[in-house]
UniProtKB/TrEMBL annotation:
<protein>
    <submittedName>
        <fullName>Uncharacterized protein</fullName>
    </submittedName>
</protein>
Length: 68
């Protein structure tokens, strides 16, 4: 699933922001809130649940790690 981190999305209960910001904010939520975290976007998939958000965070985090 290749998603544009600069795409504007809605993080439920937190408003409109870029996808990267929504993923980061969802990962900082308290565990109970994290389970309910949902990102709504116009593309497919239209709704990202926390499991998908967590996978995106892990995928994007790997790109930020320098390769020696």
């Amino acid at each position: 699933m290749a998603l544009d981190p600069d795409e504007f999305v809605i993080l439920t209960d937190h408003g409109t922001m870029k996808l990267r910001s929504a993923v980061l904010r969802a990962m900082m939520l308290l565990p109970k809130e994290r389970k309910r975290a949902t990102i709504v976007r116009e593309g497919e998939p239209a709704i990202l649940n926390f499991k998908q958000i967590k996978n995106l965070a892990a995928q994007w985090d790997e790109r930020l790690v320098p390769i020696d």
